[in-house]
Each structure stands twice: as C-alpha cells, then as structure tokens.
Predict the structure.
Amino acid sequence: MNVKKTLKILVCILICFMMVNSVQAKTIDHFHSEIDSDIKMEDEVNGSTFLAGSNLEMSGKADGVSFMLGNKVEFNGNSEYALFVGNSIEVSGNINKDAFVAGNIIEVKKGAELKRDVVIVGTEVEIQGNISRNISIYASSVNFKGSKIDGNIKIYASNVIVNDKTVVNGNLSYPSDASVEIAEGSVKGKINKTEAISSDENVLVTMTMSKVWSFMSLLMVFAVLSLVMSKVFVKLQKEYDNFDFNKGLEAFTKGLMFLIIMPIVIFVLFLMSIGIPLALILLALYFVIIYLSTIFTGYLIGYKLWQRFFNKDINMLVIGIFGIAILFVLSLIPGISVIVSALTMIIGIGIIYDVILKGIGSSE
C-alpha cells in the first residue's frame, strides 16, 4: 500500500513538473526589449525586438528587426531583418530580408536561410548555411563549408577557403594578395581578383572592427553608470524634457567653451609648480568627460526618439543602448562620420555640464 501511495505522489510530481515546463511561447503585439546577463527569447513578436546581455539565444519570431547585442549571440529563430553584434555569433535560423553581422568569431550554421543581402564584419567567419542573394565579408579569414550562395560574393580577407561541397551560383571576388583555396567547380560564375587588401580594404576592416569594440565598450560603461548614477540620467530627462533648437544650441555652446577653455586652464596650472597636481587631475577629468560625452549624447537621442515615436515608459538601459546604437550606425557612414563624432562630443560635454558639473558648483 505504501508503494501505491508513493507512486501516486511521484505521478503528481511528474504532472506538476510537466505543467511548469510546458509554458507556451506568447505573442507580443508591440516592440519587445530585454536586457539581462542571460536571455532566452522564444516568443513571437509582431514588431521588432532588442536583446542585450552576455549570453543571448533567440528561437522566437520577429516580424521586424531583430537586434541582438552581447558576448555570445545565438540566433535560431525567424526574423524579417537582423542586426547582430557580439564576440561569438552563431546564426542557424531564417532571416527573410537583409542582415548585418559584426563580431569576432562568426558562424552561419548549416540549415540557416538568409534570403536577401548580407554584410559580415569579423575576424574569423565560417559559412555553412544558404544565402539567397549577395554577401560581402570583411574579415581576416573566411571559410565556406557546404554552403549555397545564389548571388555574388565580395570578400575582403587575407585567407579564403571554398570547399567542394559549396555552390556559388554568382561571381566571387577576393583580394589579389589573399591566400586562397577554391574547390574546382564550386563557383559557377566568374572568379575575380581585386586590388590587394593591404591598403583601403584593410583600413576599412580595421576601422570597422575598432568601432564595433569601442561601441561595445561604451555600452558596458553606460550599463555600469546607469546602475550607480541612475539619478543623473533621470535629471537629464527632466533637464531636456522640452528639447528644441535653442536648447541644443545652448548645449553645443557650453560644450565648445569647455573644450576651448579647459586646456588653457590646465596649461596655466602646469606653468606653476604648485598647480601641477591640480592640472593633472583636471587633465584626467577632461579626457574622462570627452569619453563619456558619447554616452550622454546617445542617451539624449534615445530618450527623445523614444518619447517621440513610442511615447511610453521604458527601461533606462534600453533608452541608452538605443541611442548609442544610432550613433554607432551613423559613425559607419562615410562622409558624415567626422561631423557626427564632433557634434556628439561637443553636445555631450554640454549635457554633462548641465546635469553634473553645474550641480557640483551649486549649493543645492
């Protein structure tokens, strides 16, 4: 009899366990965002989704843009567009339109379907999945292993391997000074050699990767600041709640004056032996403020755009990452990147003055 009671208890526990673990993925009818150290997203989003953290896995569906930013990024879901940035990136799902992938180690796994154009920037890139249109790759080494590419391939890399199980229906181009292994018959179109990668292309890859790591570093610094200095960003929101051209010009003027006057003050202090310690402190503070200017400008952009288009409360981290990501994308556009960087720095310094430095000098 004790055995029967024990079996009943075990059955009840098993049923409860199955009920707990059979939670169905839900449907989300709005923009979806999550920020955590570990995220596993299985939901269906009728809109775009934003995931940021250390370890990210998305097996759900997004009827919009899937933006994943983390150390380890795994995508095996379904999305219209994709933007992945991380250290290690694995793509094994379906992307119905365009995709941009930037990271260190990037793998497009077997079974992945990328149905339109793809741009990849990384160190080591391995392609096993299928790409229905064109792909451009900026990397150190590229390895095509059993993939099918229906469009053209443009490679800017030092090492290129295309094995005999790969099918390229379009043309393939690679730098003339690259180390290349291309299986006979794998490329159906033309194979072209471009100029050596030693100049412009190499600089482009290096600059892009540098910006990616700088972008990720800024996000990490912002994440820490949002935790230990959350009141500063709340004050920023209040200070710039009503933002117009005059308010922006005021912040620009304050930032420009700081950039001009502070080096003069530091120089004068260095001329006096008694002022050298203070000069060193101010010099360090000067560079710290310049570095943080991008974070504060990005946060303001994220806050105002979110306020304008979404008009609802949102996590402080999401606002900052959203704005900083916009600045990162703009910095990649030739012709305007220098202007964007200059304006970002000057306006950001003006914002820091309004929300931090001005408060230090007041009696409040």
About this structure: The radius of gyration is 25 Å. Confidence is low (pLDDT under 50) at residues 17-23.
